[in-house]
Amino acid sequence: MKQEMIDLLKKKNKISDKDADEVLALDESEIIDFLKELGSQESSENTAKKIKENLKTDYIGKNIYFYDEVKSTNNIAKFFGESDEEEGVVIIADTQTKARGRSGKAWKSPKGGSWLSILIRPNVPPTHASLITLATGVAVCKTLRTIGVNAQIKWPNDILIKDKKVSGILTEAKASFNNLDYVVVGIGIDTNLTMNDFPEELKDNVTSLKDEANREIKEKKIIRIFLEEFEKFYNYFKEEDYEKILNEWRHLSKTIGSEVIIRQPLGKIIEGYAIGINREGSLIIEKNDGSLEKIFAGELRHKGNVY
Ligand code: BTN
Q1: Which one of 36, 167, 175, 304 has the lowest number of neighbouring Cβ atoms within 10 Å?
Q2: For the chain, percent of residues with pLDDT exceeding 70
Q3: Strands (E), 9-113
């Protein structure tokens, strides 16, 4: 990870590659300082500053760092997570060259999309992390609805518009002694992408905000609203007001009440009606024989749809 950050800084001429020994001797906090400097300068429009201008949050996005090209914003946020950086730091990139999606899939991140990661430090056991992901899904979905599109959540956290995926969330956490050290929540939104930005095999199943709303979307405004929604729902999480998150999730969900097919991590297929979600973020399925099953993880598809 340290090498990846050094490579990024060298590419941007933030640190010279003349003296390899000197570069390798840099400690993490010096690299963080360089990353902060780079992330405060990149982008001629100064994206970070513009988002912060009207941002009404207490701590999420108080520090925003923007990069024109990185491998993955989650990697940068994790590097900050390993330091003593406080929670709330937001990392945004114009493009990502090696972004990750869920289940080890690659995530295409060309210019025109919103690619960001938030570093948080919830003081809870790792089993609580799935509620943070649900809260993030709620925040994204509510944000997208502000531009007039009918966004819905597919369990656990894909955001769809009319059965096509428009946004995804990847939560990565580090824990020690049954406590989360930090969590990085990575959000990808296909904001102003066009169908030419997607590979052929995805074109029928994905969409962008621009295509759905038939207009160019103000990306900085979308990110600002999202950060405000995120702080609101993350605060509910910290106050252990889990029902607020779950009720909103149920309300925005496309999955609850639908007939679904789930492929579990070991390949087992479960079919039935999704009838609820519990505090662990597990989906409750009423199977065709009438029995109930709790699903912790898996790839879900609504019957008759690709997603
Ligand atoms: C999914 O598979 O649905 C999750 C996609 C998450 C993509 C975002 S883009 C910003 C952050 N950086 C990454 O490498 N991934 C996440």
Answers
A1: 304
A2: 97
A3: 64-70, 90-96
